[in-house]
């Protein structure tokens, strides 16, 4: 039953993942973080190695790079541990809860208000500048919530002037100027950033070939899994990705994706930590609600973080909207995402096992 793969909180997701890892004889490695979860529980990035630890071909999956998106990613990883079969020289490495704090607190960002998928920039270089975001920061996070009709109208008017794509880019491509703002990339590498690099160093430096499926939710049509190309090379590597995962693979560089080009994605780490490997990867992004509703839920979530004095009723409404937005409580949606998740994993295993 697909619905049984989905858990109501981080604590149960983690327990289910760890239990399944043990039950199927996979190795478990735990990287504990020095923060506590929303229920007072321990938080950790857990790594399951299913198959030979010295395999030269590895399928890597990651969940909860954006914390609250981890309900879906964790469910797929747990289901794959139960059902995925791979050839002798292929291992599957599942990194569970890359951002455990955000997962536990049902936030997309981490303990530092950082969007991890904008945190993998080179901090020796000047920080990227997002001047459009600077223009709208105060409009996105007004003093009171919800915004007034006048405040909504002002932002709508600017969206008319800019166009939706420019507005989406302004808000979501990443910004490095407002540490309490939306889609903040961070002023330095976060715990999850450093720990994820450690995971790659510990478990993937033997691999000569790596396929990576990074699991996300919240963008695109409800229940549709968009396969977004997540590599630097749009030549040979894109061809290989199309061969493995199908011609429908989209790219932020060509504008065929629902997503926009972003600064500091987590995929940068694989080039730096595993330069020995041929890497082919996608983000598998499952749609939930329309973009405007997603952005509103995120604005409310950030507003709440800035306003601990908010009334209980509003607090609950904001948390509930975040969960609805990133983890729809619908068995049909859950079935759709599981089917597409397991299909993408099987395609990757097949691609890795192809003779060369
Ligand atoms: Zn995401």
The gist of it:
It is built from 12 helices and 7 strands. With 356 residues, the protein is of the alpha/beta class.
Specify the structural class.
alpha/beta
Low-confidence blocks of residues: none
CATH classification class of the largest domain? Alpha Beta
CA-based gyration radius: 20 Å
Number of strands: 7
Question: Helix share of residues?
Answer: 40-55%
Distance between the termini: 37 Å
Shape: globular
Number of domains: 2
Helical stretch tally: 12
Structure description:
The protein folds into 2 domains: 2-122 and 187-290 and 322-353, Aminopeptidase (3-Layer(aba) Sandwich); 131-182 and 293-311, no CATH class. 42% of the residues lie in helices and 17% in strands. It contains 12 helices and 7 strands. A 7-stranded mixed sheet has the order 1-2-4-3-5-7-6, sandwiched between helices. A hairpin with a 5-residue loop joins strand 1 and strand 2 (42-50). Helix 5 packs across helix 6 (164-172), helix 8 (236-245) crosses helix 12 and helix 10 runs antiparallel to helix 11. The longest helix has 23 residues, at 331-353. It starts with 9 loop residues before the first helix and ends with a helix. It binds zinc ion. Residues 66, 69, 216, 218 line the site of zinc ion (ZN).
Helix and strand topology:
Layout: H1 10-23, E1 27-36, E2 42-50, E3 57-62, H2 70-83, E4 90-96, H3 100-104, H4 131-140, H5 149-162, H6 164-172, H7 191-203, E5 209-222, E6 225-229, H8 236-245, H9 268-273, E7 278-287, H10 291-306, H11 312-326, H12 331-353
Parallel strand pairs: 3-4, 3-5, 5-7
Antiparallel strand pairs: 1-2, 2-4, 6-7
Helix pairs in contact: 1-2, 2-12, 5-6, 8-12, 10-11
């Amino acid at each position: 039953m697909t619905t049984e793969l989905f858990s109501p909180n981080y604590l149960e997701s983690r327990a289910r993942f760890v239990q399944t890892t043990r039950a199927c004889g996979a190795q478990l490695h735990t990287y504990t973080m020095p923060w506590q979860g929303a229920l007072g529980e321990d938080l950790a990035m857990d790594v399951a190695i299913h198959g030979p630890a010295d395999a030269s071909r590895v399928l890597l999956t990651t969940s909860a790079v954006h914390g609250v998106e981890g309900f879906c990613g964790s469910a797929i990883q747990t289901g794959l541990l139960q059902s995925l079969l791979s050839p002798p020289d292929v291992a599957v490495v599942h990194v569970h809860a890359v951002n455990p704090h955000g997962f536990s607190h049902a936030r997309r960002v981490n303990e530092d208000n950082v969007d991890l998928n904008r945190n993998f920039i080179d901090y020796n270089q000047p920080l990227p500048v997002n001047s459009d975001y600077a223009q709208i920061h105060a409009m996105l996070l007004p003093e009171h919530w919800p915004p007034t009709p006048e405040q909504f109208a002002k932002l709508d008017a600017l969206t008319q002037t800019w166009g939706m794509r420019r507005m989406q880019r302004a808000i979501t491509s990443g910004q490095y100027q407002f540490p309490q703002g939306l889609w903040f990339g961070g002023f330095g590498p976060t715990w999850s950033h450093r720990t994820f690099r450690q995971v790659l160093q510990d478990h993937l430096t033997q691999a000569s070939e790596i396929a990576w499926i990074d699991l996300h939710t919240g963008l695109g049509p409800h229940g549709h899994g968009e396969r977004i190309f997540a590599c630097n090379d749009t030549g040979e590597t894109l061809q290989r990705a199309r061969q493995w995962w199908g011609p429908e693979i989209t790219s932020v560089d060509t504008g065929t994706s629902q997503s926009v080009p972003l600064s500091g994605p987590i995929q940068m780490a694989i080039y730096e930590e595993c330069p020995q490997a041929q890497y082919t990867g996608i983000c598998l992004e499952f749609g939930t609600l329309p973009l405007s509703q997603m952005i509103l839920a995120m604005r409310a979530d950030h507003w709440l973080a800035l306003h601990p004095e908010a009334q209980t009723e509003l607090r609950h409404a904001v948390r509930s909207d975040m969960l609805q937005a990133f983890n729809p409580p619908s068995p049909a949606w859950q079935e759709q995402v599981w089917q597409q998740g397991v299909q993408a994993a099987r395609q990757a295993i097949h691609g890795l096992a192809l003779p060369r």
